[in-house]
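Translate sequence into structure tokens.
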Amino acid sequence: MRLRAGPLLLLLFTIMLIVFLAYRGLFENFELFPPSPDAVYPRPVVELFSRQDYEVASGGNAPGVIKLTIRLSNNGSEPSIRGAFAAGVLVVLKGARVDGYDLGEFSGIIGVSEDGSIINPVNSSIVELFADKIGPWQSISAVLHVVAENGSDCVLIAYRGWIIDEDDVVVEPISGAKEHYIARFPAEEYPDNPPDSRWAGKDFMKYKLHEASICFRR
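Result follows.
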């Protein structure tokens, strides 16, 4: 039996479509040849930008809200892994709290209590922003709406960032387990700012932080 050209082309197209969909569904996030360790790491950099918006409260003029833009950049040729916590920024506010936020290109945010417990980011003074990936030479941003507490004129901001390397590994000394190398900002170094998760959890404040201050205009 001879097939005409039209049905034959339709059959070939259908087969190609099935193969394409199978590839998308089964193999898109699966690496047949995972990257090999290369001792090249991401280079995270965190930058802060602020803008104050004034509001009129029922009792008179309020000092308003500072819109704090958080930008995480990878200033290197090495991408992050892909996953829920591939990269991120920790922000600690002293004299202020988060009143709202815009995630932008980040994928998630949590509030953190002083003992390391996860809480709602709204009304928290410690928040962590997360991204599920960041590529080479890429930047992502989010905005925190920050309000002063207890009549504070200025806010001290402590912050740090990290990007988890896609291929290089280190040994976490407490558990002895191998894990992906964590590039940090401030830069990772032994023993004070190690590229591993030994202080994750209740000791999270042991990793180094940068500091900056912003003031409300009254």
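Note: The longest helix spans residues 5-27.
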